[in-house]
Amino acid sequence: MKKQFAVIGMGRFGSSVAQSLCKFGYDVLAVDGDEHRIQEVSQYVTHAVQADTTDENALRALGIRNFDVVVVAIGADVQASILTSLILKDIGVKTLIVKAQDELQGKVLQKIGADKVIFPERDMGQRVAHGLISPNILDYIELSDDYSIVELNASSRLVGQSLRTLDIRAKFGCNVMAIKHGGKMNITPNADDLIREGDVLVVVGRNSDLSKFEKNYLE
Question: How is 62-114 classified by DSSP, letter by letter?
Fold first, then answer.
């Protein structure tokens, strides 16, 4: 049985999440207190409902606890975001993911039981910054405060060498998870595989170790 999602808050971020989940074939309930926003998103999602999510009775009436994942994407109203999240955990939502504006709000959300806190603006800022620092970096995903995954173009310093020769794990504490070549992804690269021109490496490690690796091989 496919997972069912509820997304609360139909701002740019929330509506984008809801529409993307629907495109992937999932059932999505979109909730917002603004009738105009609900009308806008109703054609893209499975169900769209106008409701005050700071009202426990309103949330219970939606059967929100029956959804596998609830995403709270309320924007500027921090109080509404926290109160909604608190009620959702209290009524037994299985998995709660909440968008936070800043670190302070994130800490509060974690304390009240949010399973995952996301920082869209901060994360996008970090991705843009990494792309500006090194044009070889295609994508940057923060796994935690200490660990990240980086997707990068193989520089001329890497081309022609094998993973065994580079010994990235021993030198930098990073692991090459996969190598993309010609649109194909090799998720189990061999130590003797040569890195070719045009290859894309997917590397995971501590942020400090990834930084050292980038400075040695990408600049």
Answer: TTGGGSSEEEE---S-HHHHHHHHHHHHHTT-SEEEEE-SSHHHHHHHHHTT-
Q: Has residue 216 got a pLDDT over 80?
A: no
Dist CA 73 CA 95 (whole Å): 14
pLDDT in tens, 114-148: 998 888 777 766 666 655 556 666 777 777 778 88
List phi, psi (to 5°) of 194: -85, 140
Among candidate residues 195, 104, 210, the one with its CA nearest the CA of residue 157: 195
Residues recorded for the chain: 219
pTM for this entry? 0.64
* CB within 8 Å of 144: residues ≥ 6 apart: none
Q: Strand 137-142 and strand 116-118: pairing?
A: unpaired
Q: Six-digit token pair at 17?
A: 């999440």
